[in-house]
Amino acid sequence: MSFRSCRALAVAGLALLAAIAWAARPDPVLRLAWLDAQGRLQAIAVDAQGRERGSFDAGQPVPLGSLWKLVAYAQWVEAGVAEKPLQCKGHDPEEVYCCAPGDSIARGAALARSCGLYFARDRVPWERPAGAVMQALPAALAQAVQRGDLGPQTRVSPREWLAWLDAWPPGLREQAQHDLLAYWVNGAGVRQLGQVAAQLRVKTYTVEHADGTRTAGASGWTAQDRPLWFAAAGSSADVVPAWAGPVLSLTRSEEVPRETGALEGRQCVRVEFFARYPIATVEPLAGARLRTPGSLRGRYRVHFRSGTAIEIESAGELQLANVDAHPVITGDLALEDYVARVIDREAAAQPLQAAWALAVAARSYVLAQGTPSRGCLQIEDTTATQRVSPRPATAAALEAARATAGLVLAGGYAIPGQYHRDQGRDGVLSWRDATAQAGAGEDYLRILHRAYPRAGIATAADHGALACDPLPLVLQWLARERPGWKRQLAGQPGFEDPGELQVCRLARGRAHAGGGHRIDVAGYRSLEERIAVAHEYVHLAFAGHPAGRDEAFVEAQARKLLGVLP
Prior knowledge:
The protein is of the alpha+beta class and about 575 residues long. About 35% of the residues lie in helices and about 25% in strands.
């Protein structure tokens, strides 16, 4: 063999090795951008194993997809114009993303379900003067609004988009985040609710490209209130649930922002501290000043008439006043700051799943039992209600509160989330039991279900769910039928067995499926009742696919499962 031949073989061998190495290298499949705790842009490419593989250009414009609805939502809310529920009449195929014929949909649900008809140009009050948020729109979006062609193909860079989301004021941001939670509670992301909780408050999107391919993802805020955006190949029904866990891990920050500053439109709780323990005197410590009435800033020692004392700390959120010549301390707290302080005072921030469960219970309790008072919910700090720490919440407790922010025990009213340190019973969460269950690997949803078997999970803004009156006979019938149904549906695109179900007696209206794998039906004795049960089962089985929102498809499948001709 000649030298030239040997050299050619060597080059070919090196080329082959390079090709093998390239093929073995995990290609980036996710683009992820967010603003960190210092407001710095982070833009990374991620491989299929969830590992960082360099960066990507976040300054390159990309199509908005259905994120344009966030722009319309912001204009509507900021303009202060009353919302106009959209009536579904069954004439437009796009209504499948909105509501069933004869029903209506409100603004928050329209955002979470990506109902484009709700945000049609002739419905949004674009004629109203732009507020601060709309004035901060990136130029490309502002021009699209002016031209009247804002839509899925409008392009903006992730860098500019994230800066705009970061400019939203707390009140508007909190409202949007609570509305977006519906995606995880009773939308396509319901199967990840146990993993995600409220840690991702995002609007999903899918972009159709000219070559027939699709890019999808989501954008919004993390539990730590940091804007984020991500994209991968596929549809949002596949991309968002699959990547939620890695996105949370990659964007997680060790810094937890404090609940400080003006409440500015956020839900607040007014606490009467030490309501059952009369205060004798308040002693300033370490240079703190004392003015009555006035704000407390610094550390103080509170002496009670009983002879005991406790140290407190305030950055101005606590107020000292004299009522009937006796000192009284109150505090106006943001709701999640309040929940975090309850965790610190009543239990602990670990184990995490137990703390999440307690956060949902505490939030449910104050929303149900708090008395409206001058824009806040008023509640006493007592063992009969909820004890509240008179010191700033710890970072771990704040993280547990924010991770579940907006989640409550379901009800047309908030179900009171009663709890006790070690004495649990039906309707009362035992912290001791919760820690044991978390230690055994149970998530916060299962812990809550054990303590409150007749309650589901809803968003704080959801007034449609009711406490569950269980129907065990329907559940038994369903258990007998489901294996056969699963075999029939297994070949359908988008089918996924919904797992453990909760079957509740229908209180009013029509049968429906909701968050936490729950269906509300009248019974199963008559054929129509059995069709209703099968109908709601199909809804849940296709919850992550557009077919699950197609009433004609769902009804046809339900009748087929029962062998009933259309």
